[in-house]
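Section 3.1 - Work completed
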Amino acid sequence: MPYAFDALKRRPGRAVLTSLGIGLAVGLVVMLLAISSGITASAATLAAESGVDLVAASANTKLTSEEFPPISGAHLLAQEIPKDDPNVVTASPWLVSELFYANSSLRDASENDSVPSGWTPTSSGTVGWIPSDTAGIQVPDIYNGTGFTAPGDPHYANGSYDGPVTGEIQLDQALATVLHVHVGSTIWANESLPPTVASLPGWFANATVFRVVAISGPFWLLPSALLAFTYLSELQTIVGGATPSTDYASLVLIHLNDPTTAATDQARIAAAFPGLSVFTLSNILGAIQHVVNLYRTFGELIGLIGLVVAALFTTTILQMSVDDRSRELALLRAVGYRRASVGLMVLEEGLLLGLFGLVVGLPIAYGGAYGLNLLLLRLVSGLPHSFSFVSFNPTVIATGIGIVVAIGLLASIAPAARAMLLPIAEELRAP
């Protein structure tokens, strides 16, 4: 090893550049692995903390679908699923839709025909649910306001849809900020966007009026930058499905008393309700992992190219080092050093370059990954503080070390072979 270290000191610039090249390649691969590991671990933690043990969707629905076909009879499912499976604590139907919201300032401006340029209703994801029937399921934290006041779903009225309309709505902080509203404010909601400014009065006339009863924090379970919640029946009235024969929802979130039997409960509910596709937490995490693996594969291909380039570059540098010291190596052979000993010296030199590359690469990977983590956490709203896109676990670090050792070994093969096969007499006679 001292001889290998001395060989690197003779060409410090060349050694530094080679180590930097190895470090950049290793750092890129380690960073990609850390991000993949972080997303997988955080998704598993969040899913376990959500309280959602099973998710029911319309029959033949895939988890990778961007849209979920409506489930009919949602209110009845919330009652029937727990009756059929005693392990079910909560079956909470959620209708997810996109609505456009406007505040009183835009309404007043439209009535006075003085709408400023750029003013328009705001698009937001909207959830219709039964607020009092979410026991065990994680819901948004309320920062201001009392929240929904009526238990159950009053307007549903046991299927008649002739009960009182509460007009209550809960907004997340981002949507409340965009609309410039607070608890007690009035807002208007409509399915469509007005085509022109002149059509705004008609848009308001056909819109549904809501009163803001709460401002909540962001909600990671539905990763939307802007989010609103209202009673299930009242959202059904806006988007359709507010009849006993339809009673639409998008999903039914199920919380179990004993989540360890989720697979058994999945089979039981699926058999009892053939119109539903039921997914376990493992199914959901598997779908997430499938998406992560696609990006990881693409990243690994890029990383592999970098590693191949780093290995070829290191091979070239070691080959040049052997050529520079060919007479010296021949002399060592002449005084009794065996071929294997000379080859081992070159191998040690390659491993030293790899070690220096690891010293360079790990800080690059760490700094790059956590910098990207901070950026993504700012861009993706609704994630809890415990979420991290990055995880430097022992497997990730061990992989980085393994890559460095592999580069050092592979890059040393050809130069070590050349060093062992140098013609002693010719090298010593060379001027």
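Second construct:
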Amino acid sequence: MRRTTTRDEYERRILRVQRRIEEGLGEPVPPAELARVAGMALHHFHRVFRGVTGESVMQYTRRLHLERAARQLYTGGRPVLEVALDAGYASHEAFTRAFVDTFGVPPSRFRDAGLPQARRPCAPVAPPARVEVRDEPALAVLSARAVGTYSEVGAAWDRLFAWYLALPGIAPTDAVPMYGLVPDDPQVTEEARLRYDACVPVPPGLDPARLADGPVTARTIPAGRYAVVLHHGPYETLAESYLALIGAWFPSSGYALAAEPVVERYLNSPQSTAPADLRTEIRVRIEERGWMS
């Protein structure tokens, strides 16, 4: 039986991460270590952190550095450049820009006048208006991978369909379900290493020998219970629905996140649909055995 994962448990795990960041302010802490502290898959961790705290890991860490710097300026009389370097900034100018963005005044004025903080509030993350929880069967798919900026995704689809449409018995006019597997979070993985798998279902009777030397591989989208949200609009705004589902809905749902790629199901084609009218299902598999170890 699935063990319920409550919001309190998510918050406890994120609190452990916050404490690890606080204890290591003087040293960079790798994202993979923070994800391990939270007991989450790396590609889910950052969205959950932001959903629970209202800040990204980078924003939270930067804010702690700047708040410590403000205390040092106000109470210690240290030179601004010395405080800036201690906060991890390479120059007085970069530190001043960040300080003004957070407190509304330059650091020298803050030090001299002790002005109250005028920070920008953290933006809360709202869950989607509707999330469907449903069971999906395993699906065998053919896959072509793109690595790099998401502008490379179109080339992966071109390779996949060029190979797929050359199969015997496949007509160019056949409607083919289209899926994307997204294992990385752009906030975690550098752009040049982002992975994306373009997928279509394996056609009946496919000879496995055809996969031996081609640009396409076979894999399976696992069966299981999925949390599904429908995204309306251009693909460039998918990240907003990802964050709402993973970062805001899951912590309040009683469910845990499976450590697998997010599944995108494209319900209409960008070739014949205006960006504002595109519809994409975002599917995140629920971990049925309780919290991930």
